Amino acid sequence: MAPKRRGRNCCYICLAVILLLGLLFLILGLTVFKAKKPITTVNSVSLKDLDVSFDITRLQVHLNITLQADLSVKNPNRVGFKYDPTSATLQYKGQTIGDAPVPAGSIGARETSPMNITLTVMADRLLSTNGLFSDVRSGILPLTTYVKLSGVVRVIFKIHVKTSTTCDLYIDVLNRKLANQTCHYKTKL
Question: Are residues 25 and 73 in the same domain?
Answer without folding.
Answer: no
